[in-house]
Amino acid sequence: MDYTADSAPEIQAMSTDAKGEVRAILRNGDTYGTLNVTLRGRPVESYVRIIGTNGSFFADFVRGTVIKLPGPGSSALSVVYNTYSQAAQGMWKPTCFFAGQALKKHKSYPGLAEIINAYYTSIFNQTPFPISSESTIHTVSLCEKISEQLRESEARAEQEAKIHLEAKEKNLPPLVSDNEVVLVTGGTGMLGRKVAEELRSKGRQVRILARKIPPFSGQLPGVEYYTADLGEEIPATALSNVSVIVHCASETSGGKKEHERNTIQATRNIIETAAKSGVKHFIHISSIAVLKTSKEIGGPIDENTPLDLNNLERGPYVWGKAEAERQADMLGNQSGIHNKIIRLGPLIDFSSFQAPGRLGKEAGPFFVAVGSKKSKLSMCDVHTAARVIRYYIEKFEEAPQILNLVEPEAPTRGELADLLKKSRPDLKFVWLPIFILKAASPFLKLLQRMLLPGRKPIDLVAVFSTEPYNTNLAAEIIKKAS
User: How far apart are CA 311 and CA 307, in angstroms?
Assistant: First the structure.
């Protein structure tokens, strides 16, 4: 839809909130439109729908598609045609878009490169721009109005959050020490946040290192926040008065490069800074996935099971965590830092349950669960992990050097599925036997090599496999930490 100097679009109604939600009704003469942006809704939506007297179009910014229905569409034949045309475009265009994403042919939003090229072509040929200057100005004006209201919504919400945060801080227990700080890396994540909350509730002074200080609505009461990028040199002031470091931070997405920087290099940097600052106690949070399999060692996995190093087939996350643990142990010994290692099982929150990755994957209305309903899936509740880490800080010298932390009584996959159904009754479970995944493994590796050349294929069987663990030590420490 283009505009002229005498035709300016306007926002007739708009609702925004601090989370980035936008819902607006737009009008330009006899043409109406709706703008909907939601990051919290499921599925995530970001689209604009324009309806005029001579057709409509729908631009979906999440799926990268535009569905056009030209013409008035008032006749019975047009109504039928438009119905099937909309359905066909709704299937074909997203398919092309996602295929382009998978094959790395799309580097940006569809149409962006084309319109930029059209602008440069018009400049070179001294022809009119593909979109009039009036249209560009009006569009920018609309965006500025939406941005202004979003900022106002955020400011109001942050002021309310600040007042709420200050009220909570008044009810916190007094600090047990003013000059002994527990430093938590990754403190804005699921585990780090729960650890910081647990420690502060027991009177511990807590400092969180984060790349960006969260807004008041994302902060914990009574906790200090310090800006630092662990992938780069860490200022010594970040560790002022620190007596113990809980290193929870690690990369959770991306490829080898990202995990090299944000897991391995980050671990090196924090230990080197700790050594310079005289910090002697360090708790390294690793993953139980870094260990060799029970098949390789010929029995249940325990604290003496060796690391599975340099194995990218298990994915960049496991590769990075294994190397980071090795580095933490080596650098700790070299610098005189007393280092303890806690290897967590798959982390979940039973109070707000979401399916762990090893259970399976959600696909629309279906949940494809891998394995047998009766097979057990070892994991660790985030509240259990926080209590055990707090115990390690309180009883550092007595705590085991290495701990594989999983719940002593592992739930079955069927029990986890039932737990998920309570909050998601819409899901239909499809159970995929592990032997089928094993049979398909060679084909799946070949497919990964074709679609992702240059990357080592991931062993999907290892990703979903259930391992037997010796939980005697974990049960003992969990009991002591309760």
Answer: 10
